[in-house]
Amino acid sequence: MGKGGNQGEGATERGAPMPTFSWEEIQKHNLRTDKWLVIDRKVYNITKWSSRHPGGQRVIGHYAGEDATDAFLAFHRDLDFVRKFMKPLLIGELAPEEPSQDHGKNSQITEDFRALRKAAEDMNLFKSNHLFFLVLLAHIIVMESIAWFIIFYFGNGWIPTVITAFVLATSQAQAGWLQHDYGHLSVYKKSTWNHFVHKFIIGHLKGASANWWNHRHFQHHAKPNIFH
């Protein structure tokens, strides 16, 4: 059970002893109306704040009652900025005798994943080539323009239609993967620029909703990657 202190959202006070909690206590708080999670052995009450979470409350809610350290590192590029919002939510920490991972997780898989991430970081695989993405976007726009010109100039006969379909299929497939990278905020350091280009590609070139894609696709990565 938790020891000491108020268990309300952001209950810790500066200078006061940090309350400690067991995994048994933390795992009780995995309800829609009561959500705690753990990051780097610190316990956070996200019950009220989850509705304001920029990534959506369902994504962060998947980790209620669990350790969310690896997901936190994977989904946030500017960790120092994000941690500013976490301070009011801090309510305590894991008891010293508790393991860093909750009892349902496979520690070996977690260690392997962290080793893989470290190897990718050492190889600079997370550093994007801005020129590559700019050229890719430009060639997609050129192909879309060519498809429009073929129909405009040659009409809608069988041959122009087949050629246009081939050009559009190629450009749309490329646009699908390009919006995927921007949607994951993996191109620029500033989220604003990633969101801007993502909305242009998926909204204007593919005719879909960027907000819908983020809501569904972020969960596609978040929930399956809970290591048990």
From TrEMBL:
Pathway: Lipid metabolism; polyunsaturated fatty acid biosynthesis
Annotated TM spans: 131-151
Domain spans labelled Cytochrome b5 heme-binding: 18-95
EC number: 1.14.19.3
SUPFAM superfamilies, A to Z: Cytochrome b5-like heme/steroid binding domain (SSF55856)
One cellular component term from this protein's GO annotations in UniProt: endoplasmic reticulum membrane
Organism: Neovison vison (American mink)
Name by which UniProt lists this protein: Acyl-CoA 6-desaturase
Membrane topology, as annotated: Multi-pass membrane protein
Keyword terms of this UniProt record: Fatty acid biosynthesis, Fatty acid metabolism, Lipid biosynthesis, Lipid metabolism, Membrane, Oxidoreductase, Transmembrane, Transmembrane helix
Gene for this chain: FADS2
Cellular localization per UniProt: Endoplasmic reticulum membrane
Ranges in coiled-coil conformation: none
Pfam families xref list: Cyt-b5, FA_desaturase
Annotated segments matching region Disordered: 1-20
Reactions listed under catalytic activity: (9Z,12Z,15Z)-octadecatrienoyl-CoA + 2 Fe(II)-[cytochrome b5] + O2 + 2 H(+) = (6Z,9Z,12Z,15Z)-octadecatetraenoyl-CoA + 2 Fe(III)-[cytochrome b5] + 2 H2O; (9Z,12Z)-octadecadienoyl-CoA + 2 Fe(II)-[cytochrome b5] + O2 + 2 H(+) = (6Z,9Z,12Z)-octadecatrienoyl-CoA + 2 Fe(III)-[cytochrome b5] + 2 H2O; (11Z,14Z,17Z)-eicosatrienoyl-CoA + 2 Fe(II)-[cytochrome b5] + O2 + 2 H(+) = (8Z,11Z,14Z,17Z)-eicosatetraenoyl-CoA + 2 Fe(III)-[cytochrome b5] + 2 H2O; (11Z,14Z)-eicosadienoyl-CoA + 2 Fe(II)-[cytochrome b5] + O2 + 2 H(+) = (8Z,11Z,14Z)-eicosatrienoyl-CoA + 2 Fe(III)-[cytochrome b5] + 2 H2O
BP terms from Gene Ontology: unsaturated fatty acid biosynthetic process
